[in-house]
Amino acid sequence: MTGEKSALLIIDFQIIDFSRKQMIYKSESIITNIKVLIEKARKNNIPIFLTKHNGKLGSAGQKGASGWNIHPSVKLIGDEIMIEKDYPDAFQQTNLEAELISRNINHLVICGLETEVCVDTTCRSAFSKGYKVTIVKDGHSTYDSQHILAEHIINHHNEVFENWFATVSDTKHIDF
Questions:
Q1: Which domain range does residue 77 map to?
Q2: I need a labelling partner for 161 at 20 to 30 A (CA). Which of 10, 46, 130, 150 fits?
Q3: What gap in Å lies between CA 98 and CA 78, rounded to an integer?
Q4: Would you tell me how many other CB atoms lie within 10 Å of the CB of residue 18?
């Protein structure tokens, strides 16, 4: 990723998504991979952005509720940039783009939750805004839906990302 100014963008890695009856697909490996990505980013002085989705009022994921917090496996050290959001698109009505511009970031490495909602929408939005995007193939996940298994959702989205919007790479191949 030479010649680029990169940032790690972790989408909605919140307690609520690990607290439901239905488990995130491959949740343990997603946690491990995101921790590895954070370690790589810190080692290379790459800015780390985390989004927090503000859930509906009265829900366990509403702003300020315990489920709204970042998953405790992510050890925050205080230099991360937190972006609160109300929509699947991390750019919509947030200060994400202003924060990226202020740091001259032109490349986003995206991981997090949920594949077909916030990861997908943010990837497409970043691409449309002219950012180079790398999706971490084994760094995003979701739940089984009523009609489609999570594994199929993830594989389908990785294919769409790679064909249209992003480079897709495994955690072990991410080199900031």
A1: 6-173
A2: 46
A3: 19
A4: 17
DSSP bridge pairs for 113? 141
Could you read off the pLDDT of 80-112 as tens digits, one per residue? Answer: 999 999 999 999 999 999 999 999 999 999 999
Determine if the pTM surpasses 0.85. yes
> Three-state DSSP class for 50?
strand
Residue 13 to residue 80: CA distance in whole angstroms: 13
Element spanning 125, H or E: helix 120-128
Number of structural domains in the chain = 1
Closest to 138 (Cα-Cα) out of 12, 56, 27: 27
Q: Are 96 and 90 in contact (CB under 8 A)?
A: yes
pLDDT digits (tens, 9 = 90+) for 42-84: 999 999 999 999 999 999 999 999 999 999 999 999 999 999 9
